[in-house]
## 1
Amino acid sequence: MSGEPYDDRGNKDLSIANPKGQGRMTPSPGTDHPMDTGEAYLVGDTMTGGYGAGPDILHDCTIAVNPGEIAVIVGPNGAGKSTAMKAVFGMLNLRQGSVRLDGEDITGLSPQDRVGRGMGFVPQTNNIFTSLTVEENLEMGAFIRRDDFSDTMAQVYDLFPILKEKRLQAAGELSGGQRQQVAVGRALMTQPKVLMLDEPTAGVSPIVMDELFDRIIEVARTGIPILMVEQNARQALAIADRGFVLVQGRNAYSGSGKELLADEEVRRSFLGG
Ligand SMILES: Nc1ncnc2c1ncn2[C@@H]1O[C@H](COP(=O)(O)OP(=O)(O)OP(=O)(O)O)[C@@H](O)[C@H]1O
Ligand SMILES: [Mg+2]
């Protein structure tokens, strides 16, 4: 989060309501039931929009996650995965569609207000303060809290012991995998009700990826729903309760992680056979 994380946020035009109402996704080929996203805990529902006055990047795009779940968004580079996450976090100008959290329409809220409502977001890039120490990064994560957050910091150090060891080191000196732990830890410091991760395993080795996935599963088991984008599609879908394949800003396939992994077309087109 060096630099300004919100600088690509579009103008917010809230005059256009979602004409389509609550979303109910059509079944993907290879899956035999529609995915009911309308009542999900966190849902970006039939979102259409782009950056500022630019063209639409998302087209009727729906992503969602429920308590106890890990939901994974996969798709080719440039498909709009990060854009969909930013839209859910309030960094985009939605022309259609809505975002709901725990049944409440939050489409009009700023990202800051969404953090206040319990959303934790780890962006794909610039997700730590490189010149601050690990511990200062975690403290920054707790910026909205007025209570004593030392317990939460202890929990983060339990989850990521290496961060405790390196707590006085500048975060910018850490390895890629360790930086991602700082970023996830920072988001956990707000005690989020839902955690959104954009490519938490980007640029790390397969072993570190497995470790990060284990930690993410551990977080999910504590009851925090996780909505994450992953480029390691096969591995991510293997741990996903819910999966969304995005192509050119649209939902191409959706289903449980297992269903998507078993789907011939998904395998051929997105998982390398
Ligand atoms: N800040 C921005 N301003 C304008 N256009 C943008 C911005 N960020 C992304 N885009 C455009 O939106 C489209 C989708 O980009 P996005 O980053 O959402 O894709 P992605 O699926 O996350 O890709 P990747 O796998 O490479 O992370 C691309 O055409 C991209 O050029
Ligand atoms: Mg991206």
Note: The chain has ten helices and ten strands.
## 2
Amino acid sequence: MMIAIQNVFRYFVVNSTNREYKKYKVNSVHGPLCPNAKGDNKMALLISNEEYKNGLDALYELIPPRVKPLVSFLENKIFPIMKEKSTFLDIGAASGDLTKIIAPCFQSTTVVDEKHIFEYIYNKHGFDYYIGDFMNYNSKKKFDMILCSHVYYHVPIDQLEAFTKKMLSILKPNGILVVALTAPRGANHHLCLSLNKDYIHSEKIINILNKLNVSAEKESSTFKISTNDFQKIYAMCKLFISVDCFANSSDKLTEKQVETISKKINDYVLSTKQDNIYVYLYEEDYLVIRNS
Ligand SMILES: C[S@@+](CC[C@H](N)C(=O)[O-])C[C@H]1O[C@@H](n2cnc3c(N)ncnc32)[C@H](O)[C@@H]1O
């Protein structure tokens, strides 16, 4: 019975997420679509607004619901070990796809994101929010769970440690920090590495945590996206690569470099073809840090 209720709940959340995404898409065609959060289209060289929009379209169409693996992980492995579920903070919540599903499990939800365009979503759902760089966020409260999902790619390398320390500093005793990031394994990782050897993946964050004497448990997850539509998988792959590998540096790329990167992505997507179907495997890791 409980599972049936959860499934119905999730059905409505996923559908409302897609509706909101469509609204966001329409609203932001001329706005700062690109993932580099400053809103000044720094990534336009590598990924144009049109390509970014196509990538998001493909992402929502090919992985419904995109956030499912992480939500299942939280439901099955994290919530059962939590002592208290009072306050939840989602850092880099973007359009709140994850936040909306997780928020009902907590008494209060706060989000932080640099982008203004998502503000109406946070208002609509009654989240407390701070629009701006997390490093400038002065939190008056501490949190039982902090989620930082696919955000580290945007953090400048020289701020990674301070960003991590800051998250830990606002975790309650017995609180849990969950970090989701691309994993350093599989073909996608090798592509990322060949494009930018300094791209941020989970192992780099584990190294920072080790330096801070903080231990993390790791759960690995893989999701598989299959389609016979080259344009869609290419658009989605370009979006992933632009965010994962170049969120911080695309404004420094030359046109020649952009051409080379686009060609490598093209060749990579072609190499995933099996019996007329493109099979794209995305490996991610969930890091769990307990404040005990
Ligand atoms: C790739 S999206 C991740 C969205 C969501 N967490 C998920 O996993 O679906 C990254 C988000 O982090 C935000 N972001 C990046 N750096 C940030 C910072 N220093 N402070 C606040 N938000 C940041 C960006 O604006 C963007 O919306």
Note: The domain at 2-290 is CATH 3.40.50.150 (Rossmann fold).
